[in-house]
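hey all, quick one before standup. I had two proteins in the batch that finished overnight and I want to keep them in one place so we stop losing track of which output belongs to which input. First protein below, input sequence then structure tokens straight from the run.
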Amino acid sequence: MSQPKDNIFVGLDIGTTKICTVVARENMENTLDIIGLGSSRSLGIRKGVVVNIDSTVASINEAIAMAERMSGVAIKSVCAGISGGHIESFNSRGVVAVKNGEVGKQDIARVLESASAVNIPVGYDVLDVIPQQFTLDGQSEIKDPMGMSGVRLEVDVHIVTGAITSATNITKSCSKAGIGVEHIYLEQIASSEAVLTDDEREIGVCLIDGGGGTTDMAVFNKGEVCHTAALQIGGNNFTRDLTAGLATSEIEAEKLKLISGCVMMDIVDPSETISVPSVGGRPPRSVSKAVISQILQMRCEEIFELFLGELQKKKLLKTLGAGIVITGGMANFEGIEELATKIFGINVRIGKPLNIAGLVDQVEDPIYSTAVGLAKLHSKYGHSKNMISQGSEEGVFGNIYGKMRDWLKEFF
């Protein structure tokens, strides 16, 4: 038996290298206490897209089960993330006449629908419509026009589209795992919810979220997203570069990347060496750490320079008063801030989940930014169907409290 709890929210990050589940509870201060975390190796995803549903379901089940054991929650609904090369986004504008001279819910719905009436390629669908600003009778920069008097209502939106099959396969994989998906969010939008401050969004900031299969970007200005982009280059490419450059196995290359990953040769001691296992029964070799750093730096420079070109093309670089925020697995590379500062020429910081409580030490790593952000979005816009299991009403401490109640019953 279980009892419903409306304030339990779950983010499910279905990534290329890992699937991560974050369980959060809304507290009295309307912030989130992280009460559960589950992570598993992602076996059915390539570059953010489901390529094997059965393997994906197995990985989801493992991550969900781990999070349920830690939190004492029976997970039934989540907000999930989506990324990949199929994602396209653009800005659009809608206009309607206000009925009755006062903006109501129907007017807002109609103007958003008007902005969403755009030509989309066959096989694609609108994944999200993100309002940027409303304009009422020529007055712009309105966040919420509800109840205002006017005649002409306009809205600027950021539209995210993606392959129908990709979103469907994410939902289908979750459904087979016994989980309902309330909404699918673009992963960099989810990560921004976890790591950016309101001031940064207002002044202008670019978020770079480096995952295993893709590296995603989102640009914010005046509090709202104004541009998104994605590269089909991620952590797996760094690993393959080391595999080829050092003539070692992919497993060993991944270990080297995580343990000795530095993307700035200038800060590496040229005399420092690392033992690199060989293949085919050959003895391990001693390789300068500078060589490893050079390989990683070249790939990282490629990613940053591609994003720099995108920002320059869209004339957005000068709008980034708050600079660049890097999150995801890429953020854990040594020297990443220095290299990004050198290439972009503006301030750079590492983005970790902010304004959370509970299991902070376990989720403050940038690799959990997307999952934490999805849980936050679930709490803001979702309707939780998740439940605290009986005897686990306080998460991991529920069993202790349950026993204390039993002892008290024996004496009174």
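OK second protein, same deal, sequence then tokens:
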Amino acid sequence: MANLNRIKVVLVEKGKTGKWLAEEIGKTPCTVSKWCSNSIQPDLQTLDKIAKLLEVDVKYLLNDTQM
């Protein structure tokens, strides 16, 4: 599976944990862990919430897929 998001990287940059993110957005830590490992992807509405919580542009959470 391709690494489509940078949630894990941004959490580290901001000094936050997956558990913190899960509590803030009302998801389970298991779900956030799957996002961080790129096993599954959050929907766009959730991605927007994550960006606001982490105070970054939503584009910063996404990997560039162009080669």
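Flagging for whoever picks this up: The chain is about 50% helix and 0% strand. The domain at 7-56 is CATH 1.10.260.40 (434 Repressor (Amino-terminal Domain)).
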